[in-house]
Amino acid sequence: MAVLSLPEDYGYVILTGVGAIFMAMWKGVKVGMARKEHKVEYPAMYSDDNKVFNCIQRSHQNTLENLPQFMFLLTMAGFSHPRLAAAAGWVWIAGRIVYGIGYSTGLPEKRVKGAFGYLGLLTLLGCSIHTAIQTIKF
Fold first, then answer.
1. Residue 88: Cβ-neighbour burial (10 angstroms; 0-12, 13-18, 19+)
2. Which long-range contacts (CB under 8 A, 24 or more apart) does 72-75 make?
3. Distance (Å, rounded) from C-alpha 105 to C-alpha 83?
4. What are the residues whose beta carbons fall under 8 Å from the beta carbon of 116, sequence distance 6 or more?
5. Rounded to whole angstroms, how far apart are CA atoms 101 and 137?
6. CA 69 to chain centre
7. What percent of the chain has pLDDT over 70?
8. Which of 116, 123, 121 is CA-nearest to residue 99?
């Protein structure tokens, strides 16, 4: 049985994951506030007539849709490159925040300002592939 030990500096990876959770919670609070402001009652996910609410809700929903793959890549990348993975993770989180702020204006085209976050995600992908290659015995 193989024993897994965390690399030195893996705490940065863990803190980055916690930061991502706080970012998702912040977006959830924004949706709750928008529900009250725009009078969108539960259980409706979207408004039939309020584009701003729908954009705020969609920003949060899209982040939740992307969070599992981010967390997986962050975790795997951190095994080989903890500091780089943490830095890349914060780039993704910053991109998600900028994406959310832009989208929340009610003008969906403003969400693309957060596209730089994909640089972080692609870095995590590359580091995760490196982690996988390191563990394969050829």
1. buried
2. 72/128, 73/121, 73/124, 73/125, 73/127, 73/128, 74/13, 74/16, 74/17, 74/20, 74/124, 75/13, 75/17
3. 34
4. 91, 94, 95, 98
5. 45
6. 9
7. 99
8. 116
Q: What is the 3 state secondary structure string of 70-122?
A: HHHHHHHHHHHCHHHHHHHHHHHHHHHHHHHHHHCCCCHHHHHHHHHHHHHHH
Report the candidate in 31, 36, 91 with the shortest Cα–Cα distance to residue 61. Answer: 31
From the list 25, 10, 5, the residue with the least C-alpha distance to 97 is 25
The pTM (predicted TM-score) of the whole model is 0.93
Q: What is the pLDDT of residues 94-138, one digit of tens each?
A: 999 999 999 999 999 999 999 999 999 999 999 999 999 999 987
At residue 4, what is the residue type?
A: L
Residues 124/70, Cβ–Cβ less than 8 Å: yes
